UniProtKB/TrEMBL annotation:
The chain crosses the membrane at residues 20-40. It comes from Ophiostoma piceae (strain UAMH 11346) (Sap stain fungus). Keywords: Heme, Iron, Membrane, Metal-binding, Transmembrane, Transmembrane helix. This is Cytochrome p450. The keyword Ribosomal protein does not apply. It comes from the Eukaryota. InterPro entries: Cyt_P450_sf, Cytochrome_P450_monoxygenase.
Amino acid sequence: MAPYSRDGLFEKVGPYVTPLHMGLAIPVLLFAYLFLHAIYDVFFHPLAKFPGPFPAKITRLWITWKCYKEREPYMLQELSKKYGPVFRISPTLLHVSDATKLPAIYSRHAHKPKHYITSSFGATDSLLHMQMHAEHSKYRKAIVGPLGFGGPFGFIDRSEDINDLISGYHAGLL
């Protein structure tokens, strides 16, 4: 018999692979996975440097519960007073309560990653699906330029105005 044959391996391991052992191994492996995933989310995730409540670093269930109990807006306002304008509300989600911080997060000049592309019809990308900022900007100016989105249509030009608008809306919820 060869030293590494399948039959020899089963003869050695087979008696130990019982339904009881498998029934115990599955929950242990599941717990180990969840524990290691929580360690990653708390300490090594790209959003780990942002402050926030501890449950927010591990799970989304706490904010789901607050939403279910209709306490989410009030809780977010309290947390923004405690942690500042940008804080973590789930392992993969930030809450931004100050509109002046949005340009730092959503940079207009950033190149979009591959997962940004959802679908594109035809051989060329549409304006919404262009990844390179320079190409997107060129086509956007050709479309938006004649329309003049700004003063004539009464759109908000400054982030301070947006912040006042959001604050007024948020105050109306209370």
